[in-house]
Design a protein that fits this description.
It is a single chain. The chain is an alpha/beta fold. It folds into 2 domains: about 1-280, P-loop containing nucleotide triphosphate hydrolases (Rossmann fold, 3-Layer(aba) Sandwich); about 285-544, 3-Layer(aba) Sandwich (Rossmann fold), CATH 3.40.50.880. It is about 40% helix and about 20% strand. The strands form 5 sheets. It has a 9-stranded mixed β-sheet, with helices on both faces. A 7-stranded parallel β-sheet has the order 5-2-6-1-7-10-11, sandwiched between helices. The radius of gyration is 25 Å and the shape is globular. About 50% of the residues are buried. The structure holds glutamine. Glutamine (GLN) binds next to strand 19.
């Protein structure tokens, strides 16, 4: 097993995840089997309880792991399926050490960060890497070098390098090269300082990846090489490019692949990047554009909807269109200007080709989203509701078509006269928040002859879930009689997984999150359907 360890310096949000994924793509192109681990030095056991507005979306894995969004990047770039073991957090490590201590497994010893926590980190990394049966394991250490929280993890990877045979561990450090002042000079000092910090804890980077606006000049690379003690070929410019799919190609051009392979003792492997070049071309080639409204409540931080953005990109590439997302903050019902905001929203929705209402939790913005759904239903604008968006589409239908005034989800109104969305039976009595939802990969049985069937081309779909509420089984007959039919259900027939509206060109909802399984070149059927419907809608509008 070879390890490529990616650390970050200077500041957070440099795109370490994309760099790490890109290196993975390059090693995969050399015929190696690649896996990835993300280390998050926070105390949460997983990302499940975290507010997406702070940390970006919670990504969901097949096994139900609620993890950092970088695991989504790995899955999409490397086309692999990861498990929750691949996201190591301080909380998980401490929990397992404390459990061992309680069992008396440390035989009377004083349990300490060094060696116990650090050993636990190393053994977890090795176990996860070995289990994946990969040739190379990319490990991204979250946070920035110098953070108190990351210390035990950096110490663990330092020791890992010492313990592993020569050439098995490669350190990649991602830093920032800013441009300051009127002369526009690229500054190397932040990089020098952060490498100094890294070396202070005993880690000498093998490769330095420099994030910057413009290509890092040869002169600046030479200076970084000199002061950070790496060869010039090991300093790589990762300047801004118009889309993430170009990053592997950009850093490959500068020789990072050959250099990394050499340092890992794998020189001579033939690298064939044509598959990725094809993907990059496909992902960026489209000329025709469609406008997709995304009506959400975390629209201020785009990372909260990262997988939706990617799924739309993948589907767009498949359909030969570029999807421009129109971000719409759902009007909030308890604000005095609610109706005014709804009007403004409608003016914007008039100009889009499709409407997407994503998942979410909590009351805020619910009524605003419902009004957007009314607009999609009445104006026959292509619509997809995901998870909460699906539940809201059923509430909207109950209120607007079946005249069930006050219909709601018991999540928002426990006393609603028409609880068309209600707690899953197995959720009753659960009080703990973490990892207790209906999570992960589940099978959906699709009814033949439906839109869902046409999209999936199958009577079975496997998709990832993350919810506590469901369409209330007692209302299903009535809803279906009204024309909103459930075309996908759980194997026991009890849980409604997909809904679609009769007499509407494309109005779909799903209880699962299809965006988590969308990959470049292998887009999600639901999103392909939505984007295709958007394109048709736009063309139709053009003809009128
Ligand atoms: N809040 C809803 C539920 O728990 C929807 C969840 C979601 O959109 N992920 O069922």
């Amino acid at each position: 097993m070879k390890y490529v360890i990616v650390t970050g310096g200077v500041l957070s949000g440099l795109g370490k995840g994309i760099t790490a994924s890109s290196i993975g793509v390059l090693l995969k192109s050399a015929g190696l089997k690649v896996t990835a681990i993300k280390i998050d030095p926070y105390l949460n056991c997983d990302a499940g309880t975290m507010n997406p507005y702070e940390h970006g979306e919670v990504f969901v894995l097949d096994d139900g792991g609620e993890v950092d969004l970088d695991l989504g990047n790995y899955e999409r770039f490397l086309d692999i399926d990861l498990t929750s073991d691949h996201n190591i957090t301080t909380g998980k490590i401490y929990r397992s050490v404390i459990e061992k201590e309680r069992k008396g497994l440390y035989l009377g010893k004083t349990v300490q960060i060094v060696p116990h926590i650090v050993n636990e980190i190393k053994s977890t990394i090795r176990r996860v890497a070995r289990k994946s049966k990969a040739d190379v394991c990319i490990i991204e250490v979250g946070g920035t070098v110098g953070d108190i929280e990351s210390m035990p993890f950096l110490e663990a990877v330092r020791q890992l390098k010492r313990e592993e045979p020569e050439g098995n561990v490669l350190f990649v450090h991602v830093t920032l090269v800013p441009v300051v002042g009127v002369v526009g000079e690229q500054k190397t000092k932040p990089t020098q300082h952060s490498v100094k910090e890294l070396r202070g804890i005993g880690i000498q980077p093998d490769i330095i990846v420099c994030r910057s606006d413009k290509r890092v000049t040869k002169k600046v690379k030479a200076k970084i090489a000199l002061f950070c003690d790496v060869p010039e070929e090991a300093v790589i410019s990762a300047h801004d490019v118009s889309n993430i799919y170009e990053v592997p190609l950009l850093i490959h051009e500068q020789g990072i692949t050959e250099y990394a392979l050499k340092r890992l003792g794998l020189e001579g492997l033939k690298v064939d990047l044509s598959w990725w070049a094809d993907i990059a071309r496909k992902m960026t080639g489209a000329k025709e554009r469609v406008r997709m409204a995304l009506v959400g409540k975390y629209t201020g931080l785009k990372d909260s909807y990262l997988s939706y953005i990617r799924a739309l990109e993948h589907a767009g590439a498949e359909e030969g269109v570029k999807v421009d997302i129109v971000w719409i903050d759902a009007p909030e019902e308890d604000k005095p200007d609610f109706e005014e905001k709804v009007k403004r929203m409608y003016r914007r929705l008039e100009k889009v080709d499709a409407i997407l209402v994503p998942g979410g939790f909590g009351q805020r913005g619910i009524e605003g989203k419902i009004r957007a759904i009314t607009f999609a239903r009445e104006r026959k604008i292509p619509f997809l509701g995901v998870c909460l968006g699906f539940q809201l589409s059923v509430i909207e239908f109950a209120r607007g078509v079946l005249m069930m005034e006050g219909a709601n989800s018991t999540e928002f109104d426990p006393n609603t006269p028409y609880p068309v969305v209600d707690l899953l039976p197995e959720q009753r009595g659960i009080t703990q928040l973490g990892a207790t939802m209906r999570l992960g990969r589940q099978r959906t049985i699709i009814k033949p002859g439906t839109m869902a069937h046409r999209l999936y081309g199958s009577t079975v779909a496997w998709e990832r879930h993350r919810h506590r509420y469901e369409i209330n089984p007692t209302f299903i007959e009535e809803i279906e009689r009204g024309g909103y039919i459930f075309s996908g259900v759980s194997p026991d027939g009890q849980k409604m997984e997909i809904g679609e509206m009769r007499g509407h060109p494309f109005f779909m909802g799903c209880q699962f999150h299809p965006e988590f399984k969308s990959r470049p070149g292998r887009p999600s059927p639901m999103y392909v359907g939505l984007v295709r419907a958007a394109r048709e809608y736009k063309r139709e509008k053009g003809r009128r």
